[in-house]
Amino acid sequence: MFPSGQPYLSSRDMVLKGMLQYDPSDEELPLMVIDGQPYSWEAVGRMLSAFEGFHVTIEMADLADV
Q: What distance in Å separates the CA atoms of residue 30 and residue 32, rounded to the nearest whole number?
């Protein structure tokens, strides 16, 4: 937690792993579930803002294959 009390997430080995899930409050955008906690795309964007200028790879994998 930051000194201001604001929580933060860290990624292990600079890898963010999660699952897309239906969001009943916003039918247009899914939620990103990371470590069992749901995050909006806005929240995920704030988490990733520290990596501005980095290259990003998004990999989609079926749960049956993981």
A: 7
